[in-house]
């Protein structure tokens, strides 16, 4: 089934961002001919390999099908290179669980309203929450001065206020999503790029 002449794909890794996942690998270099790739998967529940919709493909990435959207499933994938009748060895991934292994991006900041002693911030989560999810927003903020300490606040709504600020002062903030899943796993997302706003004069 496998041929020693065809090298196996390298750098095989599951890339997952905001619960959208795909398998990626480095191309197999050969002197002639077009190398094709086939990807299989199996779940923790059924220990048998199944075809993904990536059989004899030319690209070096395969997106997870809709059937693998369950975040709590344990999934193992494998990929091999094929050229004519020759096939490389399979390369397996480590077990992947989306709600443990995905990277959560920063929330989208929709609007910021400046008050004399507060900033009112409206955000949107970076992915569609599922029932049972509890999303918090961790907000770090600081005065844009030479030496300054960061303060932190948490909010569970998409509209929240940073209060007790000085008037006519420039404040910066960044926000991370903290997701508590039904399995009580806690995922901390990437921080947003800092944004700065000046409070008004009362």
Short description:
With 202 residues, the chain is mostly beta strands. It has one helix and 17 strands.
Describe, in plain words, how this protein is organized in 3D.
- It comes from Halcyon senegalensis.
- Pfam families: Interfer-bind, Tissue_fac.
- This is INGR2 protein.
- One of its GO terms (molecular function) is cytokine receptor activity.
- Residues 103-202 form the Fibronectin type-III domain.
- This protein is an all-beta fold and 202 residues long.
- The protein folds into 2 domains: 10-101, Sandwich (Immunoglobulin-like), CATH 2.60.40.10; 108-198, Immunoglobulins (Immunoglobulin-like), CATH 2.60.40.10.
- Helix content is 2%, strand content 47%.
- It has one helix at residues 98-101, and strands spanning 10-17, 20-26, 36-43, 50-51, 61-63, 74-83, 86-87, 91-92, 96-97, 108-114, 119-124, 134-143, 151-155, 159-162, 170-180, 186-188, 195-198.
- Strands 3, 4, 6, 7, 8 and 9 form a 6-stranded antiparallel β-sheet that branches. Strands 12, 13, 15, 16 and 17 form a 5-stranded antiparallel β-sheet that branches. A 3-stranded antiparallel β-sheet has the order 1-2-5, with no helix packed on it.
- The chain is elongated.
- The termini are far apart.
- 21% of the residues are buried.
